[in-house]
Each structure stands twice: as structure tokens, then as C-alpha cells.
Amino acid sequence: MSAPVTVIGTASPRPARSSAPAAPRERTWPLLLAVVVMIAVTATIGRAGLYEPGDDLGYYLGLSGALMMATLLLYPLRKRIRPLRRLGPMRHWFRYHMVFGIAGPILVLLHSTYRIESLNAGVALVSMALVAASGLIGRFLYVRIHHGLYGQRATLEEFQTLSGLANRAVRSQLFFVPEVEQALLSFERDALAPTAGPGRLIRFVLLGPRARLLYWRALPRIRTALRARAEARHWDRAKTRRRMRKSRKLVLGYLRAVLRVAQFNAFDRLFSLWHVVHVPLLYLLVLSAVIHVIAVHMY
Length: 299
Known about the structure:
Keywords: Membrane, Transmembrane, Transmembrane helix. The chain crosses the membrane at residues 31-51, 57-75, 96-116, 122-143, 250-267, 273-296. Residues 1-22 are annotated as: Disordered. This protein is an all-alpha fold. It has two domains: 28-152 and 276-298; 156-264, no CATH class. It is 73% helix and 0% strand. It has helices at residues 28-46, 56-70, 74-80, 90-112, 119-142, 156-173, 178-192, 198-233, 237-298. Helix 2 packs antiparallel against helix 4 (90-112) and helix 7 packs antiparallel against helix 8 (198-233). Mean pLDDT is 78; it is low at 1-25.
């Protein structure tokens, strides 16, 4: 994926905005952290002895959570049944699916007071935990093959276009620090080289850590080179900081673009496999919840 080196001294026009998607800014760890905090808070409340699962409060907490999770079945129906497609854009449905998929289990955990007192309750609780964990995994995979969290499904060609734009930007704007430029281009060649067998899995797993290591190694070199240029050209501090910020964003955007191209097919396959697992788990959850509700009202 080579491109001719452009002359940095000339002010080239800004390229037209591409239809290629930008690197995803949605991160999974803040969501995971929020879920962990919610579980910790609700566990403290549930174990405080303020109510029991059979009390009015405990009962309605469980009922609210169960109804929320039951409505999750509307999301796949909205995608597959043609008349339902008139009921609003998919991004709103996806947002509701994600919010209810977290809030519903949290309410059920509050209902249970974090105790398992019967077999059917244990099966329902484990099923719910599996579905919730599967949903978080699905979100992680989803944003890597779509235009952001609520966008359309992307294609490999779009990411390749984005990577090509980043490649040309690196060649034209990092000329003053050639060791970083060469390290980035070498990383791209290695990341996009065809690999078969166990080497493909190893490369897939190590690409992210390698990209982060390369990024943090590049920053001090860029900073040193920019300071030398700033002294030679009599830049003020504000201009030097702007150039550093721009270079940092350039390197980060380039690495993200390369990663998305290199990992797209793998994430696409994983997302397809995830669908095979997630949907049956959702049906298992509904079945176990129905059995639990019947058992509660019978006994």
C-alpha cells in the first residue's frame, strides 16, 4: 500500500471528506466500568436486608427487570419483519436494546438480593448473566465492523480507503522524523501481510499491543524532532504544541486505520459466530424466566 511522497513544504489542499468510516471512538471499558459500579452498588443495597425477593418491592423489581428483558425480543423482530420497519430507525432500537439489556438484569439482581434460593431461580439468574455478558461482547465486536455505535455496517474496502488516506498523510507530514515514519510503514506492511495457520491468530492477538507500544515509542521521538524544528524556525510554544497535537493524532489515526483493515475479517467472522450463540441464549433466558415466574406464583 504505497503512495508517492509529497512535498511537505507546499500547502496541499485538504482532501475531500471520504465515505470511509473514522476509527471508532466508542470504547468498551467505560461501559464495563459502569456495569461493575452498578453491580457493586446494587449488591450493597440488596444485601443490606432492606427487603426480600417476595416483598412488594422485591417482586416489582423482578417484574420490571423481567419485562425489560422480555421486550428485548422486539429488536430482532424489528430487523426481520417488514411491517415493523416503519417503527423508527434501527439506531433508536439498538440504543433501547442496549439500555434495557443492562438495566433489566440489574433490576433482576436487585430483586434476587444477590442470593439463589431455588434451582429455577439459579437457572434464570445464570441465563441472564450469560445473555448480559454476551451482549457486552457483541457490542465490542459491533463497533469494529460498523460506522460507530449506531451506524451502518462497514466494508473492508471502506477501511482500506481510510488506511490509504492515513498512509499518505504519514508520508507527507512525518518527513521530519523518518525513523517514526519507517516504523509506522513497517508496522502496516507486517500487519497486512497474508498469514496462514497459527501465525494468523497470534498476529491478531498481538496487533493491538504492538500498535500501542509503537505509539508510545513514537511520541518522544516526535517531540524531540519537533523541538529541534521549533528552535530552527523560531516557533512559539503555542505553535509547537499544535504541531505536536496534530502529529499525535496523525499517528494514532494511522495505527487505528491499519488495525481496522488487518482485523476486519476476523471481527466480522467473530460477530457472525456471536449471533449464533447470543440468540439461543436469549431464548433460553426467556424460557427460564417464564418457568421461574410460574414457579413463584404456584408455590
